[in-house]
């Protein structure tokens, strides 16, 4: 049975990352407040060093790895944000890093990842094909692979966002969380429900790619 991230894991991540990860601000939104009739704040994760919440999980996962685990470097697959987080965290720890990206990846994000000192391999037409290549590299080189969301340490670090929101707005009623792979939502849910089980957590997905909703509806993993 896979390890399930706990509230204590989230608290531990917050303490370990306190000198690297920024506690991002909340901004009152006039537009969404008027549209919904509720008081709405936005969590400004663009304030992180790499411009995304993905740095949280990438840094925490890499920071807890042993020298033996990282002696052959680190590899990850990403369309952009996770790759930037892994590349930056690897640079902080002085670990060799390779990021596999789809061939149609944003040139700006490719440049940013290279700017952190990582090697970029352009492989595949989508994330799944890039992930397959990253797994191949990990197998042949012995590099440690860093998953973007399906990892208890990544989930724990993303969950710190939930702790911050509770600290910033103790009487929050609802939190809306975007869902891609589900790591952010799982982490926020773990943290917030432990602090206040009455807070409602709503996951949001694009109608074009509702993989999480389809998975919940069918009872099996859908992509």
UniProtKB/TrEMBL annotation:
InterPro entries: Ser/Thr_Dehydratase (IPR050147), Ser/Thr_deHydtase_PyrdxlP-BS (IPR000634), TrpB-like_PALP (IPR001926), TrpB-like_PALP_sf (IPR036052)
Any one GO molecular-function label of the UniProt entry: L-serine ammonia-lyase activity
PROSITE patterns associated with the record: DEHYDRATASE_SER_THR
Residues of the Tryptophan synthase beta chain-like PALP domain: 19-221
Keywords: Lyase, Pyridoxal phosphate
Cofactor(s) the record lists: pyridoxal 5'-phosphate
PANTHER family reported for this sequence: L-THREONINE DEHYDRATASE CATABOLIC TDCB (PTHR48078:SF6), THREONINE DEHYDRATASE, MITOCHONDRIAL-RELATED (PTHR48078)
Protein name: Tryptophan synthase beta chain-like PALP domain-containing protein
Organism the protein comes from: marine metagenome
């Amino acid at each position: 049975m896979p390890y399930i991230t706990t509230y204590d894991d989230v608290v531990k991540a917050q303490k370990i990352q306190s000198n690297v990860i920024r506690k991002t601000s909340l901004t009152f939104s006039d537009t969404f407040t008027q549209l919904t009739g509720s008081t709405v704040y936005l969590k400004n994760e663009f304030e992180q060093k790499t411009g995304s919440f993905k740095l949280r999980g990438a840094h925490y996962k890499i920071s807890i790895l042993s020298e033996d685990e990282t002696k052959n470097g680190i590899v990850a697959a990403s369309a952009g944000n996770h790759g930037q987080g892994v590349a930056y965290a690897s640079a902080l720890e002085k670990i060799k890093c390779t990021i596999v990206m789809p061939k149609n990846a944003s040139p700006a994000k490719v440049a940013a990842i290279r700017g952190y000192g990582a090697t970029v391999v352009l492989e595949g037409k989508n994330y799944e094909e890039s992930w397959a290549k990253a797994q191949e590299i990990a197998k042949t080189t012995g590099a440690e692979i860093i998953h973007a969301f399906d990892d208890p340490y990544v989930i724990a670090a993303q969950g710190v966002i939930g702790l911050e929101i509770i600290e910033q707005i103790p009487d929050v009623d609802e939190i809306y969380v975007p869902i891609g792979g589900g790591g952010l939502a799982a982490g926020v849910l773990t943290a917030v429900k432990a602090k206040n089980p009455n807070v409602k957590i709503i996951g949001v997905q694009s109608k074009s790619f509702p993989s999480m909703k389809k998975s919940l509806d069918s009872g099996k993993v859908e992509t």
